[in-house]
Design goal:
By secondary structure, the protein is of the alpha+beta class. Helix content is 30%, strand content 24%. It has two domains: 8-106, Beta Barrel (OB fold (Dihydrolipoamide Acetyltransferase, E2P)), CATH 2.40.50.140; 127-171 and 207-450, BirA Bifunctional Protein, domain 2. It binds one RNA strand through strand 1, strand 2, helix 3, strand 11 and strand 15.
RNA sequence: UCCCUGCUAGCUCAAUGGCAGAGCGUUCGGCUGUUAACCGAAAUGUUGAUGGUUCGAGUCCAUCGCGGGGAGCCA
């Protein structure tokens, strides 16, 4: 096992003259007359360790199998590099092969791969520059999310992945069953007899942990979830996954403005953390993927988010003089083209839109005094659109019950959600943030399938 | 799900309906320190699948499959 101090990241900072063992995968190799250069990487940093092999120092038969893609252990001395490009390099004394890689069939070369091709070799793309950077950033971001909440005293709550509560209402669900689909048990009426199913009733993969998180917020004050969620929507876009990770904080004694404050602080904190933890990786994204990434991130960290009510947003769009594919009028939901206009052209930074018409938002959102709008907020970001959706929750029992009845929802299914308002209710608020959406923002990557290790999308669940 | 678009060598892409091509990678050779190294040579093809039109189809038509962009749904 590799210990702290032995990763290539550490060897690159190590002292000259020290004899070390370097373990990793050969990224590329360049040969000259009397000397070979091997770029070795173990995933611990963007920077490769350059291994220098002087002619004759390593047996011919070993050099023959030390090719692109091979996994090796190199023993040698850390020396100051005489050439530009790296401060130190490893002068090889011995190379041991763990696993070879036939260069004739090894699919990764050092230039010119498309993301689509790399996605087809998800078992090897992890060794490429791009995906090394992506998944180091993903790790750093996950870490930053936890420390952001932990530092504020939030309690991490594990909401269920399988749910039978049938009231999450955030989109189409994947059903979970152990019934024999070829020959399911039937009731007298000929319907599926879910009493005989594993949980005794229909069960699904969760689409949101929010309702469960509210239970915890009304006992632990400030909580958050961070886990996988599932949507069985037939969405085929670069921004949607069937399985994705969501961050959902929920705060008691919090209103919409507290919610907005947390959303902004949270985004700034996590972005800043990743910028500090992964400077080399972000430099790479800025250089090769999207040359506006660093500028945008810096701007987000330093600027105040724009706040605008839905009503004001509609007015801005109406006055823009644009012709919209989807008409703008008070009461219509904002479309992609409208969101983009607000973030990319009007304000050129993240925008928080609040107080939407109640008709286009969920039943649990807190009604405003005007009788027309609810305390909802969407955080819109340039290039990727909606990144956060949240609201202050309706904490008044009678108002919530009334809404459930008016929207024709199954009152019984919400019995515990209603009881939270019956016993010790409190104003509370929260939001949901798509982890991979934030990854897109941080990396400048264009397709959400390329910021999750193993993407699941309609008709695709490989690896 | 809808609209547009693509599918040719391992990869990225060319090819008026008329001989299947290049760059990169690979292999071999050269080069005294390279950084997506450089120079020379060679090998590499069921043109996504199935039908159809045609003297002749990579090219035109139909259906299907897979990918990409946009939209809807949303995070």
């Amino acid at each position: 096992m590799i210990h702290k101090g032995e990763y290539l990241r550490d060897l690159l900072r190590g002292e000259v003259g020290k004899t070390v063992h370097a373990h990793g995968w050969v990224k590329t190799r360049r040969d000259s007359k009397g000397i070979s250069f091997i770029q070795l990487n173990d995933g611990s940093s963007f920077q490769d360790l350059q291994v220098v092999v002087e002619a004759g120092s390593i047996p011919e038969e070993v050099m023959k199998v030390t090719t692109t893609g091979a996994c090796v252990r190199v023993t040698g001395e850390i020396v100051a590099s005489p050439a530009a490009g790296q401060p130190v390099e490893l002068k090889a004394k011995e190379i041991a092969l763990y696993g070879g890689a036939d260069p004739a069939t090894y699919p990764l070369q050092k230039k010119g791969h498309t993301m689509e091709f790399l996605r087809d070799i998800a078992h090897l793309r992890t060794r490429s520059n791009t995906f090394g950077a992506v998944f180091r950033v993903r790790n750093a971001l996950a870490h930053a999310i936890h420390s952001s909440f932990q530092e504020r005293g939030f309690v991490y709550v594990h909401t269920p992945i399988i749910t039978a509560s049938d009231c999450e209402g955030a989109g189409a669900m994947f059903q979970v069953t152990t019934l024999d689909m070829m020959n399911p048990p039937r009731t007298d009426k000929g319907e599926m007899d879910y009493a005989k199913d594993f949980f005794g009733k229909p069960a699904f993969l969760t689409v949101s942990g929010q309702l469960n998180a509210e239970i915890f917020a009304l006992a632990f004050t400030n909580v958050y979830t961070f886990g996988p969620t599932f949507r069985a929507e037939n969405s085929n876009t670069p921004r949607h996954l069937s399985e994705f990770w969501m961050i959902e904080p929920e705060m008691a004694f919090c209103d919409l403005s507290g919610n907005m404050e947390l959303a902004e602080d949270f985004l700034k904190y996590t972005i800043k953390s990743v910028m500090e933890a992964c400077p080399d990786d972000l430099d790479f994204f800025n250089k090769r993927i999207d040359n506006t990434v660093l500028e945008t991130l810096t701007q987000v960290v330093e600027s105040r988010f724009e706040h605008v009510t839905y009503t004001e947003a509609v007015r801005i769009l109406e006055k823009s003089g644009r012709t919209w594919e989807f008409p703008v009028f008070w009461g219509a939901d904002l479309q992609s083209e409208h969101e983009r206009y607000l973030t990319e052209e009007t304000f050129k930074k993240p925008v928080i839109v609040t107080d939407y018409p109640k008709e286009i938002k969920a039943f649990y959102m807190r009604a405003n005094e005007d009788g027309k709008t609810v305390r909802a907020m969407d955080v819109l970001a340039p290039r990727i659109g909606e990144i956060i959706g949240g609201s202050q929750r309706e904490e008044r029992y009678d108002v919530l019950l009334d809404k459930i009845r008016k929207q024709d929802l199954n009152e019984e299914a919400y019995w515990w959600y209603l009881e939270l308002r019956k016993y010790g209710s409190a104003p509370h608020a929260g939001f949901g943030l798509g982890f991979e959406r934030l990854m897109l923002y941080l990396t400048g990557m264009k397709n959400i399938r390329d910021v999750i290790p193993f993407p699941r999308t309609p008709a695709s669940a490989d690896f």
